[in-house]
Amino acid sequence: MKQLKLPFDGIPGPGCSGEDWHQRFTADALVIDMDRDSLTFGLWNKLHGVWVTDRETCRSKEYLPDWQPLTELGTWRVPERTLLQDEHFPFPMNWLTCCEVSSSFIAYFNQIPFRLRRLVGQLKGHQWLALDLIWQVPEFAWFLDTEIAEGRRHYFHACVELSGAQEMSRQGRVLFARSLLSKRRFSVLSELTGFPNSRKSHRLFGKISGHEPWSSLSYFNMLEVACTDTGAKAFAHARTIAHEGITYWQELPCRLKTENLLRLFASSKSTVDLFYEETADLFWNVSDDVLERLRVSLSTITNHESLMGWIGGKFQKLIEIHPLPDPPVNGSSQLVPLDSASGMYIEAHKMGNCLDGDIFSVRGGERYYYHWNGSEPATVLLEQSDSGDWYFSQILGPGNIGVSRQTRLYVEAIIDTQLQELGQVKMTPQKSHFPLLQADFLANDNVPANQEPPHYSVGEDGDVDALYLSQIEQVWS
To answer: Per the CB 3.0–4.6 Å rule, which of 53, 60, 245, 340 could disulfide with 38?
Structure first.
């Protein structure tokens, strides 16, 4: 019987080609010879563990992988190569070699009892560590089974992250496992965080949404907040806990750290995203009186819908008392920068446009608006390019109608001159509802093809000289 050659095709991942890699089973281990190193995976019934050996110096060191080898059912899964930057990641670019390595790992994990594989399969990136702890301290499997069954797998994740167990020595991991088995949970957490934890703190881990491990800082923040009266009350009534909400709540001014906001933030990531996106840094640099009024109004928020109503109401008043960034150019007696939210509201009402809906773009430094107080009143927009330079973008009259060419050129000359004084090169508008000046100029048959478009100068008062306006009329007529 002849074995058919199967055409293995796939998308190669990062790393070495793997063409010279070799894998083999010995009596004690699975050995993968890579380009520079050899990985030794000790068998479960011998000496379980992973070691890296430098093939030139023949020196070995223990290594705990952080990639996930098993599914939640305990079966082999090919790791997502594109998401990993592990120096000793044993899956090469060569697809056929990658398949051969996977086949070797399937045989390697099959000699581990299935009930243990299924147990650690639910621990995401801590699977290798969990297998190591169980092999060294067999009764640790009972501990993990209990925590997972009672919905507290994040207690194990938190202890690993806070203790740095992944970086411990082999003997240090044994002491770590025995500590979790022998000590009360709140005592372990108190030792790891450095401050006393409540006897009920372990209940928080059953409310964490999702199974992905958090960072050590996120676990620390949650336990720190839980030790306060406000945090204890909020978490006691919360159904789920998301670390993004806790982090943002901690960044609020002290007066605004209310129980209802913490409960709302911790239970809904979408609420946190909405609140953070809209408020940004508006709560800072305001008077104590404003902070107190904010605290009273925020204390009435109980759910996502009431938060939306607050943002649409009192939040607008909060925006108005915050100054906008400094204008990119000073303008002139006729070109007035709209440097406040209230000024943008007035402009939107006077000119019949939707300027009031673009305040956050101005706050973010992406755009800036001016009012043109000339014979043709208009709203002028400056935008910032990807390189950080500002450029004239649009000018629109009442009701977003266009303005005359003379007015547009007049205003653009003022802006371009002031930008050049700041050392910025004139840029072509990236987005505009109007024809480009250069295109209009070259399309005029009365102008020689090699002639440059007219340039204008601005006086000390910021106004374009009348002589240049007359030149504009002659060239563009």
So the answer is: 53
Cβ within 8 Å of residue 335, ≥6 positions away: 370, 371, 372, 373, 380, 411, 414, 415, 462
What is the tens place of the pLDDT at every residue in 121-178?
999 989 999 999 999 999 999 999 999 999 999 999 999 999 999 999 999 999 999 9
Sequence-distant (6+) residues with CB within 8 A of 92 are 15, 16, 17, 18, 19, 21, 34, 98, 101
CB neighbourhood size of 474 (10 A): 10
The Cα 284–Cα 366 span in angstroms is 21
d(CA 32, CA 18): 11
Return the SS3 of 297. helix
Distance between CA atoms of residues 173 and 160, nearest Å: 10
The DSSP line for 74-93 is S-B----GGG---TT----S
Q: How far is CA 243 from the centre of its chain?
A: 13
Q: What tokens does 18 get?
A: 């793997």
Specify whether the CB–CB gap between 331 and 370 falls below 8 A: yes
For helices 243-251 and 216-226, the axis angle rounded to 10 degrees is 60
Nearest to 41 by CA among 55, 57, 59, 53: 53
Is the alpha carbon torsion for 285, 286, 287, 292 positive or negative? negative
* Greater model confidence, 93 or 39: 39
For residue 339, which amino acid is it?
Answer: D
- As a whole number of angstroms, the distance between CA 261 and CA 267 comes to 10
Cα angle 246, 229, 191 (rounded to 5 degrees) comes to 75
CA–CA separation, 381 vs 160, rounded Å? 53
How crowded is residue 69: how many other Cβ atoms within 10 Å of its Cβ? 19
CA–CA distance, 401 with 332 (Å, rounded to integer): 23
DSSP string computed for 304-369: HHHHHHHHHTHHHHHHHTSBPPPPSS---SSEEE--BHHHHHHHHHHHTS-GGGGHHHHHTTSEEE
Q: How far apart (Å, rounded) are the C-alpha atoms in residues 114 and 131? A: 12
Q: Looking at the predicted structure, is the pLDDT value of residue 472 above 50? A: no
Q: Which two tokens stand for residue 390?
A: 């500002």
Model confidence pLDDT, tens digit, residues 337-388: 998 888 888 899 899 988 877 887 887 788 999 999 999 999 999 999 888 8
Other CB atoms within 10 Å distance of the CB of residue 295? 16
Question: Six-digit token pair at 436?
Answer: 């480009």
CB 188 within 8 A of CB 143: no
Question: H or E element: which one contains 54?
Answer: strand 49-54
